[in-house]
């Protein structure tokens, strides 16, 4: 192995490390990957054991990879001492729970002084590791959440509660109660976000690393180029379509990101998309898989159960909104390809499909195994484990065939020495893949750890329930405002809950108000809440699907989260269109259905163009400003307003096309 080992993809990890630190990074990274493989496929561990060991190893790796004074500065004596202290804090964070878990559970709620001290060390260590690996923004949000928990008459900082608006006031919590929530319970640092990171996000990041190490990544890149290389943004468009199918089956936007994203994100980066754009596109597309019939994750079954409607009816009415969503993401991909000047390649520049398949068809086997096991409803973590084993088996078999049969025919002698060198090279690649996977997972795991702090405070203070009640009260009978409030409430509640759980909680809280007070049809109310429950996957600061995409893309989690939020705008607009144009769900005269569908597609296309400032060519600021009220008019329940809005949008888009034709003529 070279002195530096495999190059990490995680941003900011290019620090000038000494040789002992490099070896220690390799040791911790390989240990982490082997631990994850063991727990994924051989011996599943309990919740706290899995998450605490994972977090301890991740933080140890973070403090080794990211020096305290930044990546461009050597540690020095002071920096090394600080890093050593935090490294010890990482060991203590995980080690204490592993060693004393039974005793901690037995005294649940009656924490010892040692429990509280270790919990404080763990919280500070997590925040510092996040600052280094993710950035200062996420750490500040975590600190603000802690200060909010302390603000109140019974809290550690009672004076701070005076500055909170009345509806956000709470009793306040002391240090013991908060630490118990954040470190010693299941709703804080070791809550759902960390559970997601410690199970299938890591295992599929590791799968992506082995794709890169074994050469399978190059095969899929060549395959995508052969199939879509002549189109603008071809691989990104393929990612959108693939995610539509895979996401409906997988039942998880994050699982969708880490399965399809392992193939599609590297393709997009090679084509010219920036890393955070590639991760954001995949996150937005994968989130759409949850609203794509026939399965819609598990949503279709839940909606059918709650509304007492036949499952097939729920699926049928969900097809058009899902197509609208994916059309919007697809258009964003196309516009970015145009803006950045991505050109389709000529046939002579592209690999031939026959040659690509002949050289690497066997790399399709891990993908086939992956899809088959997902369809068989196996745990995504176990699916990733078997996908990695299949990948390694395929790589070994491929090399054995070449070494034993092809090399001798090409005049290369097969001796004991060459065999030893081949085995040594294979082991070096194996270790390199284990190390690379662990390095690439650091940022996303630390982002999820801080997300756990936020979720813990939300649960402790009752902020989620307050938001739900507050949003409905503040709407004052205005339906549009009520829907915005529901969206905000879904974001807060969805921070720590899976989509299905978030949907269930939210529909219980706001569903009756939407149907009884605002007259929204029952099925539409459920669809709106279900769509909005997806937003925590793509909405910072808790964009879990965006964080998973960032881990694969090697981008900053928050940057990727904001990109996913932009590309997933259909997630917010289409439910509004359902409410104000109920015929697209509830049915109606055919001309009205056709008109509503056409205006919806036109409005979504105009919105994407106005947001990006580009469609066929660059769009001037006045035109973009004119498009906004025209888009709003299409949502307004008045035929005259809809016609005027549609006409304005059509004129603006046709004018943009004519401008692009004039530019082509002027350019000769």
From TrEMBL:
Q: Which UniProt keywords apply?
A: Cell inner membrane, Cell membrane, Membrane, Transmembrane, Transmembrane helix, Transport
Listed transmembrane segments: 21-40, 52-70, 77-98, 134-151, 189-211, 238-265, 319-338, 359-378, 384-405, 441-463, 469-493, 505-532, 538-555, 567-586, 592-615, 627-654
Could you tell me where this protein is found in the cell? Cell inner membrane
GO CC annotation: plasma membrane
Gene Ontology MF terms in the entry = transmembrane transporter activity
Q: What is its main location?
A: membrane
- Domain TRAP C4-dicarboxylate transport system permease DctM subunit positions: 122-583
Extract the Pfam families matched here: DctM (PF06808)
Regarding the membrane, this protein is recorded as:
Multi-pass membrane protein
Task: Give the highest taxon in the source lineage.
Answer: Bacteria
Q: Which PANTHER family match?
A: BLL3936 PROTEIN
Q: Could you tell me what this protein does?
A: Part of the tripartite ATP-independent periplasmic (TRAP) transport system.
* Name under which the protein is recorded: TRAP transporter 4TM/12TM fusion protein
């Amino acid at each position: 192995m070279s002195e530096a080992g495999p190059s990490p993809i995680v941003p900011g990890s290019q620090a000038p490390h000494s040789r002992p630190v490099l070896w220690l990074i390799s040791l911790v990274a390989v240990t982490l990957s082997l631990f994850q493989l063991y727990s994924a496929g051989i011996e599943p561990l309990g919740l706290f054991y899995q998450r605490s060991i994972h977090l301890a190893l991740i933080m140890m790796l973070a403090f080794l990879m990211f020096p305290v004074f930044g990546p461009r500065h050597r540690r020095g004596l002071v920096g090394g001492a600080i890093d050593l202290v935090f490294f010890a804090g990482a060991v203590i964070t995980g080690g204490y729970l592993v060693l004393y878990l039974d005793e901690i559970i037995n005294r649940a709620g009656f924490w010892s002084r040692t429990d509280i001290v270790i919990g404080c060390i763990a919280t500070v260590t997590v925040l510092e590791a996040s600052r280094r690996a993710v950035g200062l923004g996420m750490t500040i949000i975590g600190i603000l959440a802690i200060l909010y928990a302390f603000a109140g008459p019974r809290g550690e900082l009672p004076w701070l509660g005076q500055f909170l608006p009345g509806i956000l006031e709470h009793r306040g919590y002391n240090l013991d109660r908060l630490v118990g929530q954040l470190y010693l319970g299941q709703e804080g640092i070791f809550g759902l976000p960390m559970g997601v990171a410690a199970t299938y996000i890591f295992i599929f990041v590791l799968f992506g690393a082995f794709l890169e190490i074994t050469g399978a990544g190059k095969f899929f890149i060549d395959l995508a180029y052969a199939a879509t290389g002549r189109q603008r943004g071809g691989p990104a468009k393929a990612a959108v379509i693939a995610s539509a199918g895979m996401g409906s089956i997988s039942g998880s936007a994050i699982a969708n990101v880490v399965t399809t994203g392992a193939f599609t994100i590297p393709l997009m980066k090679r084509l010219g998309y920036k890393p955070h754009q590639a991760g954001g596109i995949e996150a937005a597309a994968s989130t759409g898989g949850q609203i794509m019939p026939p399965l819609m994750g598990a949503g279709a079954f839940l909606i059918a159960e709650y509304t007492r409607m036949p499952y097939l009816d729920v699926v049928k009415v969900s097809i058009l909104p899902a197509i609208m969503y994916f059309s919007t993401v697809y258009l964003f991909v196309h516009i970015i390809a145009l803006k950045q000047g991505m050109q389709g390649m000529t046939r002579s520049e592209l690999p031939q499909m026959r040659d690509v398949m002949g050289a690497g068809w066997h790399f399709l086997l891990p993908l086939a195994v992956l899809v088959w096991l997902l369809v068989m409803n196996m745990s995504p973590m176990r699916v990733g484990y078997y996908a990695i084993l299949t990948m390694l088996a395929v790589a070994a078999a491929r090399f054995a065939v070449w070494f034993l049969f092809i090399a001798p025919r090409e005049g290369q002698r097969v001796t004991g020495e060459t065999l030893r060198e081949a085995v040594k090279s294979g082991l070096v690649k194996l270790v390199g893949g284990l190390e690379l996977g662990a390095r690439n997972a650091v940022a996303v795991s630390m982002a999820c750890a801080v997300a756990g702090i936020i979720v813990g405070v939300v649960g402790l203070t009752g902020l989620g329930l307050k938001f739900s009640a507050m949003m409905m009260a503040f709407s004052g009978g205005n339906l549009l405002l009520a829907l915005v409030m529901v969206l905000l409430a879904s974001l807060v509640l969805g921070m720590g809950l899976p989509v299905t759980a978030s949907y269930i909680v939210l529909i219980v809280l706001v569903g009756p108000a939407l149907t009884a007070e605002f007259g929204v049809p029952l099925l539409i109310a459920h669809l709106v809440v279900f769509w909005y429950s997806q937003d925590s996957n793509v909405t910072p600061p808790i964009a879990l699907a965006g964080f998973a995409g960032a881990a694969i893309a090697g981008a900053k989690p928050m940057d990727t989260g904001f990109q996913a939020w932009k590309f997933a705008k259909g997630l917010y607009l289409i439910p509004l269109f359902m409410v104000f144009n109920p015929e697209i769900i509830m049915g109606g005269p055919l001309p009205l259905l056709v008109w509503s569908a056409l205006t919806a597609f036109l409005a979504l296309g105009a919105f994407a163009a106005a947001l990006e400032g580009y469609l066929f060519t660059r769009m001037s600021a006045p035109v973009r400003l004119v498009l906004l009220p025209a888009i709003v008019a299409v949502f307004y329940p008045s035929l005259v307003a809809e016609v005027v809005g549609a006409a304005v949008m059509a004129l603006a888009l046709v004018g943009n096309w004519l401008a692009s034709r004039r530019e082509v003529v002027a350019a000769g």
